Hints:
Order of helices and strands: HHHEHEHEEEHEEHHHEEHHHHHHHH
Helix content: 55-70%
Strand order of the largest sheet: 1-2-5-4-3
Largest sheet: 5 strands, mixed
Amino acid sequence: MNKTQTVVCSLIADALFGKKHTYSGEIDWNAVHTEMCAQTVHGLVMDILPGLPVPEELKKTWAAECLMVMRSGIRLRHEQGAFLRILENANIPYVVLKGTSAAMYYPNPLLRGMGDVDVYVPEHFHEEAARLLKETGYSMKENEHYKRHVQFFKNDTEFEVHRTFATINGPEEKAYIDGLIEACTNPEKALRVGSGESAFYAPETLVNGLVLLEHIGQHMRAGLGLRQIIDWMMFAKAHLGDGWGRFLGGCRRQPGGTVPEPRREPSLKDELEESEWISFSEMAQKAGLLSLAKAVTRLCVMYFGLEGDFGWCMDADEETAREILAYLFDSGNFGKKTMDVSRASVVSKRMKDKNVFAALQLAGECNWKLYKRHRWLRSFAWIYQAFRYAGQMLRSRDGARTLRKGAVEADRRERLMSRLEIYRGE
Length: 426
């Protein structure tokens, strides 16, 4: 890691876990600020910002941006509440995925940057939900080639209503996760979070953890950022850092190193807690996400100050953890730092898989507006998409170089995903 990245990791540890790092020497605070903005985690430092040796002008700008993150979070929660009340008043079951269901683990949930709102609704309620939402002023956008979710828009807020969520690994793993999520739409199994107009249903605790892990896996190809990692870290801190490591013979991390946990007879409370940790490991194994859980947690222990009884992640490879960190610093949230290279890497992967014609045809049908008005043009959709990709490469600063970098990036990502024992499902 470079100096800027080291400072970013230290700031996250200080903001979330009350660590007290000393910031001395030459630090490019503008670069630190830019990196945290690219990762959509700049709001997390609001409470510690006054004590940081940041230049005053930048400190004022940064503080104003933190307030904007909070205001945006409040507004989104208001819009989410109005959206969910429509579903609840019609007895349409749902759970909120990611977003506020992840933010609740943060010391100050409003400081987690927010984007759209993801809501899972069982398939047989989708038609009724769409009708009610359109009647109450939401505009709807549905992609005929992408059935995973339907988008709704109102008051500058985007809602994704999911039919399915999982996209990682094979059909059995995806069906397993989606089945667990759907079971949580039963209010008796879901978690009711908050009160009043902002209250919502979140998945049951362990299922919520699987959703956050699945989200990390999805972004291994779409552009992994710090926010996805931190979401998982805060969940793990809240629910997986006490009991599981002891049950598996792990060590408790202490200042100055790791020492064995003193042996003692387990109490009934211990056995109940430990059975929950074991249940989660079994669920993660069935979902094909256990190696990912261990590697990401090891990363958080190594770099972000995560402390607790996390002996269960200590057999994860340190080099793999470092590679994940390097990858997310290279890509930024949703891959925004390397958009051209990410696009080129997708093209390279499809060509390598010899699915290039099918991929061009599908993408062309999705992107070609003229085809959507004149369906007889379907046979030419792949040609349109081929020219579209070519144009994107030419408009980039160095098309040929970008394509080569994309091929290297695709290989790097596939090797990393292989080590994590995950792969992108079709």
